Amino acid sequence: LAEAGRSVVLIEANRIGWGASGRNGGQVASGPRADMDDYVEAVGRDDARKVWEIAQAANRLVKDLVARHAIDCDLTPGYVEVAWKPSHAKHVMGWAEEAAKSWDYHETRALSREEVADLLGTTRYHGGCLDRGCAHLHPLRYALGLGRAAATAGARLFERTKAIEIAPGLVRTERATIRAEHVLLACNGYLDGLVPRVMRRSMPINNFIAATEPLTPERAERLNRERLCVSDSKFVLNYYRLTPDNRLLWGGGESYGQRFPRDLRALVRRTMLEVYPDLGDLAITHAWGGTLAITITRMPAFQRLDAQTWAISGWSGSGVHMATMGGAIAAEAIAGTTARWDVLSRLPTPAFPGGAWFRAPLLAAAMTWYGLRDRL
Predict the structure, then answer these.
(1) Distance CA 31, CA 37 (A)
(2) Residue 353, Cβ neighbours under 10 Å: how many?
(3) Which of 109, 219, 259, 321 could staple 215 via S-S, CB 3.0–4.6 A?
(4) How far is CA 107 from the centre of its chain?
(5) Would the pTM count as exceeding 0.90?
(6) pLDDT, tens digit (0-9, with 9 covering 90-100), for 103-118
(7) Distance (Å, whole) CA 132 – CA 293
(8) How far apart are CA 302 and CA 294, in angstroms?
């Protein structure tokens, strides 16, 4: 919007990149979060095709922004999804053929169990799918790079400035009132009760990451020969990659509510050792968490609350590329071109059951059940 000549003010309650925006796994996927079959069932093949094209464009947009603004964020190509259980293998490995046949996407290939073991140095998995069109990056450096690009374009960024009230064409903070032709809410898991209509569509959950001490080059090579980012097919999934200095960056485990578990290192380490029991000698040097927002369908929630107020949220773990594209699509819509906004606003994102008091306990119970199913 700033590049288009609009007068833009962005307020951030903490710092640019704070929370999950800068603390996530840094995976840049090639599609939306939910399976494409879910989109076909929900909105029909024509709209599902448009969603797929938007997600593909989102992947390209991230790479273009990194190049255009010279963002130093360790952008590295390659991703593999791996099958956690034998029953998952057909679905995971079948995506390569489905992507080519149904969506004209030819960057993937199925991997046998033996190929995955050779590539990732573990026999824990039952097959996989390699995607050369995906990538991974350092998410905080990426977010800060976007902030610098926006400021250079003329946007005014105000950190440590929390919104306390939203009304059509108006945002109040603790020290100021901002009047605007349009207001865009892009808070995801950090709405904190500000706009209940938006909060009902998504649920904040906490996810955790740990980093090991640097591995020797030989050990890193055995662990991830092609330096891919990896995620598995568990419902509460694990995701991981090597950093440029050969640390293993491992994401795993979730919690609900405002409190994080007391010992993040132990929580994440336990999920890592399920896959790589021989890494028990490695020290965990860093551990952290961030709050994301999921929707019931895992599809993003695009809402126009009134003539002047727009909201985008519910990235469900696909925020690096889909939230980047969400911002671009919101900017298009505010400028008067709503075609892609309209496609995404038609996606079903029903309210979570249980109201303000019981939503989190109901979600925790459901996630516990799915987590149990992962282990059976």
Answers:
(1) 12
(2) 11
(3) 219
(4) 21
(5) yes
(6) 999 999 999 999 999 9
(7) 27
(8) 13
